[in-house]
Amino acid sequence: MIDCSDAVQRLWDYVEKDLDGQEQASMEEHLELCRRCCGEVEFAEEVRDLMKVASKPHIPDEVSERLSEYLDDLEGSAS
Amino acid sequence: MPFRLWARNVGPGFVVLRSMAAAVSSKGQEVSRAVSVSEDRSFSEVAREQLPWLYSLARRVAGQRAEDVVQSCLLKAHQGFDSLRDQQAAPAWFRQILINCARDLHRKELRRVDETPLDETPDYTLYRRIADEDPLPYSESVHLDFLHSFTEDDVWNVLDRLQPKYRIPLVLVHMEGLAVKEVARMLAVPENTVLSWLHRGRKQFQEEMWDYAEERELLREQEGVRR
């Protein structure tokens, strides 16, 4: 049986489904009994989702204009 | 420029990428960057289509140097564009070149040995800190409220505070959906090194989230909204 300290160490591997069968089972066994570690898992999933949301394509207009000009220069220099 | 010389400049990964049939990450997730189906488009057309997400990725891996990194990436991509046989692979191809440029920018820091022990505070988690310090005493969902106080810009600003070797794997694995094996190949380091950087990166990211929220008074704003 693993304790909370072990569970915290394996938290992200559990969330990412990177644990092997036995580690996964011992983690789930612990989570059935530990409300706080269940909260840890849910929170880690939320943190991961927050990171995903912040990965949408986005470019400020002025940067887009400068890089477009740079592309024009590159094309111009090649022709 | 001869192909062999160009490939050396672009760095490892290119040879694999140029033969990719589709822009699919090794976890099987399709890269969500649309590429128009018509082939034989000009470099400028293909590159312009990639600019928004390319800048977004650069902003996350290179912080305030994002624009410089995108420019370096465009220059190298332009030099080697004739070698991109399958334009459907353009997103993965641009990504590898951009990561090579970011890696060049942070080369010294990526080589530096970790000075702090990995498990200096093994049980630290942001979840516990929020529970212990209870920054929003009137909230019934304090953990979620804490996370919801972060905008996309806030997340990017927190990433800026991380050391590059922790930031880059964190972005590639958790934001771009790449497998550790793929990231190790892109950064030319062993998988265990990526795993160690990821472990530290997640921890540092959450520590910095707390510090950032305090400095920017995000929690006070949240509390103000509630009252």
Features:
heterodimer, A: 79 residues, mainly alpha, Arc Repressor Mutant, subunit A, 4 helices, B: 227 residues, 2 domains, 13 helices, 65% helix, 0% strand, disordered N terminus
Main sheet attributes: strand count, strand direction, barrel closure of chain A: none
- Indicate the multimeric state: heterodimer
Outline of chain B, from the CA principal axes? globular
Indicate the percent of residues in helices of chain A.
over 70%
Brief description of this entry?
Chain A is mainly α.
Characterise the protein shown here.
- By secondary structure, chain A is mostly helical.
- Chain A has one domain (4-78): Arc Repressor Mutant, subunit A (Orthogonal Bundle), CATH 1.10.10.
- In chain A, 78% of the residues lie in helices and 0% in strands.
- Chain A contains 4 helices and no strands.
- Chain A has helices at residues 4-15, 21-33, 35-53, 61-78.
- In chain A, α1 packs parallel to α3 (35-53).
- The longest helix of chain A has 19 residues, at 35-53.
- Chain A starts with a helix and ends with a helix.
- The model of chain A has no long low-confidence stretch (mean pLDDT 91).
- Chain B folds into 2 domains: 3-105, no CATH class; 126-226, Winged helix-like DNA-binding domain superfamily/Winged helix DNA-binding domain (Arc Repressor Mutant, subunit A, Orthogonal Bundle), CATH 1.10.10.
- Chain B is built from 13 helices and no strands.
- The longest helix of chain B has 25 residues, at 191-215.
- Classes of the chains: A mainly alpha (79), B mainly alpha (227).
- Chain A binds chain B through residues 4-5, 8-9, 11-12, 36, 39-40, 42-44, 46-48, 50-59, 63-64, 66-68, 70-72, 74-75, 78, and chain B through 33, 42-44, 47-48, 51-53, 55-57, 60, 67, 70-71, 74-75, 78, 122-123, 125-128, 131, 143-144, 147, 150, 152, 155-156, 170-171, 174-176, 198-199, 202, 205-206.
